[in-house]
Amino acid sequence: MGRRNLTFVWFILKSMGVKTPSMSSVMAFKLPETEASLKHCTRDQVPFYCIPVSSIIRQSLGRPDIASAIVRHPVCTEDKYTEMFHGNRWHTDNRFMSPMVKLTDGTSCFVYDCVKVVYPLLGTTTGIIQKYFHKSCLKEVLAEVDILLDLAQFRQMVPDTTATHMDTDALILYHSSAVIAVRDILGFAEPPRIVVRWTPPNFSRMTLQETTSYLSPHPMKAKAAGKPVVMLPIIYFPMTPAVTKARSGTNLSRGICH
Questions:
Q1: For the chain, what percent of residues have pLDDT higher than 90?
Q2: Rounded to whole angstroms, what are the CA distances from 138 to 47, 76, 100, 144?
Q3: I need a labelling partner for 110 at 20 to 30 A (CA). Which of 104, 143, 205, 218 fits?
Q4: What is the C-alpha to C-alpha distance for residues 100 and 169, in angstroms, rounded to an integer?
Q5: Per-residue pLDDT tens over the stretch 174-184
Q6: Residue 251's pLDDT is what?
Q7: Mean pLDDT of the chain
Q8: 4-13, 62-71, 101-110, 145-154 — which is least confidently predicted?
Q9: Dist CA 132 CA 182 (whole Å)
């Protein structure tokens, strides 16, 4: 949105009695602790340049149609890989995966959070978020979730089970990596004290160390301290004569920051 159009929008808002910040404060907006130098160098002293976060925010406000199209999650595709976000590292490397999404009620839900989810045939049960992603044929964000069942739910799913002697507060890891829509995450659940793995036809109880590690929160959640976290893909091109001349992205380098 150009300055002239923005000024007109401000005029309309003010005429309607809406309190707005001054135009100069909007144009001079800077996000604290993010205004680093624009020019940087790699370890090999190859120069590259970054757009300040505050500039990205201003551009997002000015062109929300473009900002909303930025891919922030890995994408599963049944076709050939044509984009970086189709690649395996985006699906398996934590540095490439967005650690958080907003639920329908506006709360922040991180990877490894213990949540209430809607699961087929059972209704509401407990799950542990493992990652978020897209499918190329769908617009909504999906979650890969470990499904945990109490003994009654497990007997409903596996009627001929021999699980008769089990702690009442134990949950059974029934289905690893189940795929559900983020809209089917209903909120947060109390983490289980005991987790038992189900590997047909046997059960195996996690040790205290395994359970603690399995239920540990995402490192970014503690750093965020209640603030939303968005994965921002940064693509930078080496400043070599060949790349500059060809305007080609074939030799691009990649970096990810949160």
A1: 18
A2: 38, 10, 19, 15
A3: 205
A4: 28
A5: 888 899 999 99
A6: 40
A7: 77
A8: 62-71
A9: 9
Dihedral angle at the C-alpha atoms of 239, 241, 244, 247, nearest 10 degrees? -120
Q: Token digits for 30?
A: 């800077």
d(CA 37, CA 32): 13
Neighbours of 195 (CB within 10 A): 20
Q: Which long-range contacts (CB under 8 A, 24 or more apart) does 9-14 make?
A: none
pTM recorded for the entire structure: 0.66
Helix (H) or strand (E) run with residue 235 in it: strand 232-236
The rounded percent of the chain whose pLDDT value lies above 70 is 74
Q: E strands within 97-218?
A: 100-102, 108-110, 114-119, 123-135, 142-149, 170-181, 185-188, 194-199, 202-205
Token match 């473009």: residue?
66
| CB-side neighbour CA atoms (13 Å) of 226 | 0
Report CA 211 to chain centroid distance, whole Å. 23
Beta strands 170-181 and 194-199, pairing class? parallel
